[in-house]
Amino acid sequence: MKKVISFATIIFVFATSVRATVDDDFIEANNFYKAGDYEQAIATYNSILNQGYVSVPLYYNLGNAYFRADNLAAAILNYERALKIDPLDKDVLQNLDYVNSKTTDRFNKVPELFITRWFNAILSWFTVSQWGMITIILMVLVCVSAVVFFLTQSYRIRQIGFYVGIVMLVLLVCAYVNGSVLKNRMENINYAIVMSPSVMVKSSPDEDSADKFLIHEGCKVEIEDNVNNWCKVKLSDGNTGWIEKIAVENI
Description:
The chain is α+β, with helices and mostly antiparallel strands. It has 3 domains: 99 residues, Alpha Horseshoe (Serine Threonine Protein Phosphatase 5, Tetratricopeptide repeat), CATH 1.25.40.10; 75 residues; 60 residues, SH3 type barrels, CATH 2.30.30.40. 61% of the residues lie in helices and 15% in strands. The chain has 8 helices and 7 strands, in the order ααααααααβββββββ. The strands form 2 sheets. The protein has a 5-stranded antiparallel β-sheet. A two-stranded antiparallel ribbon has the order 2-3. The radius of gyration is 24 Å and the shape is globular. It starts with a helix and ends with a strand.
């Protein structure tokens, strides 16, 4: 037992010391940023990422540093990575919108059906973890309503328990579906940012194939397929084509 406790103590001390080092690096990177040394700030933020630590503030600050260093594509990439953790962060959304306004490409999004737009709006109310927490809370409420219905003698209270339970059950199903759909989208829909100054989109995964259109750094694309060193991309306006993988970086 003493060996187990000693081992746990060692792990705790090690984790605490590593965490303290990361915090110190983050503060140092912030100081570089405040001093206007953006390249050094970027290097320090990236060193934290290389240690395996990710967070919204880290990606957000790194995006800010890249923007100050006039690297719009890298700034957008890191803002988008921050939004994968917390899609509702207002500061990240505001900065991303501003930086996107500085990019070259402008595409009209494919019009959505009203029901699709309405469903997507509901999904965006909460993050995956928040939908999961809501699901658990509603599950508890359904159980409480069932207990009230089966164990209470009063007809009036049983009736209330029944109807409240039905409403909670419907909301439970909706919350579970919303969380599952949002999680599936985050895990299975692969987006990337164009990092090269400009890229010619081809009709097939071949350098000699016909040119379709030109896209520029900072453009967000959906990766639909991969063939050797090529990937098929889809733009927000619905247009598709092939570009070399080296030109993009996954979010």
